[in-house]
Here is the input.
Amino acid sequence: MKKIKIKYCLIVSASLLLAATIFLIFYFNRSVVVPQISGKNITTATKILNEAGLKAKTLYEYNDTVLKDIVISQNIEVGSDVKYNTSITIIVSKGIEQITLPDVKNSSLEDANDTLKKLGFSVVTEEQFSKTITEGNVIAQSVLAGEQADKGSTIKLIISKGRDLVEVPNIKGMSLKKAEQTLKNADLYLQTENKIQFSNTIKEGYIISQDIKEHDQTDRYSAINVVISAGVANKAGTTTSNANRFGKVTTQGNWVYFAGSDSAIYRMRKDRSELQLICNYSAVSLNVVGEWIYFVDGTVGGIHKVRIDGTGKTKISNVTSYKVYVDGDWIYYTDQYWGGKLYRMKSDGSSVKQITSKQCRDYIINKGYVYFTESSEGIVYKCKIDGTGETMLCAGFVGNYLTLAGNKLVVVSNNENIFSVNLNGSGYHSFQTNNTQYAFLNGYDGWVYYLEHDFRYGSDVISSFGRMRFDGSQKTKIYEYNYLNHADGFINVVDGWIYFQNEHENDNLYRVKIDGTKIERMG
Here is the structure.
């Protein structure tokens, strides 16, 4: 009985195994229908195939119309019966092919066009003028070199038309305003920073020269550089009469240069416009010649120079003198504050030479001669500019303050009498001042200007500016001070104005017209 049961179990097991084998054979050899996967995302397509009992064999290729990772096509048509687990080859889009752009700038249009078309690009062009790129060559490209673009896309090239040239007009001799308008009309403009140069023929502020000549061509909208006239440069930096009176004020062209009461050098137009601070130096004995201001530094001493724009301060000499006069390349000076022997040197400090053998208080330089008052006795001497031929001018012609009025030397003596004499010592003339003290004589335009202290009223002193001829005639009061409120140590006469410093108003600098019609505070 036991053997029968065992035999039965074996038969059943064999039957089940046979059935399973037959099932598997039929299952794995069955047919399946190929599904639609074109247009599907690669992930979705693979899932659909797997669920249908199929495998995916994936190939990738660039495509201009199908997006990246989308199935373009399949190798077995949709609805076809295939065996289970068949591999379906699907073509998946890599998207549009990206091409790295080469650099075609400065290439000819023909070469650039060939290069880009070989890479699968289309080309369009636009023309522009260029100052630097040859006509017909590429100025710029719409996609920069090294960047990528879709194959088949359009690249825009900017092609040079060459330089856009215009004819340059003549602006020499024009004012800046007129020159700017003339250039504007020609599609050009005036450079904002231009060289300044002194000129004996071209007025200040007018154009001496231009860097591109008239009728030559240049690029449209470019700048024209010019040289602008600073006017006529001084040959002499001041007058010796002003140099004897501290030299606080001088002029050059349309500018007045002056030492302010705040230890600074300024300049302004003669109409008092455009006041400019040049530099912060305490200065006396101002001389302006061309681009240089010569002065004595009242703080550190010595003779210095600085450019009219305030740069390049240079010490020329250690000598400190309040009587410095510059004529061309020569500097004349006394070797002491208030006087001393007269010397001269080159404007760079070289070639120092003593001119007078005697101490001099005031000196006048005129037409190759030096006239000076000897410090201790007040005798007037003359010598040549090189120091030779030193002689007394005439007996009895003695004094302190010395000036030149026309062709006459004028001095005030120690006893307050006034003397005048011709430059050769002839024509001696004197007159008394009648209890009036004259100080700080200054000759200008044939007149003698002076500060007058009138003692006729006892302790009340009336001070005023006046002028007269060398012989005392045509005496005219110009401007009167309040009692004892008198000028502090100098008067300078420059271009129709008397400049003075008021000690009772913080040494502020003033000027008054030589006819007395106007008084103005400087600065």
Residues 478 and 517 are 8 Å apart (CA to CA).
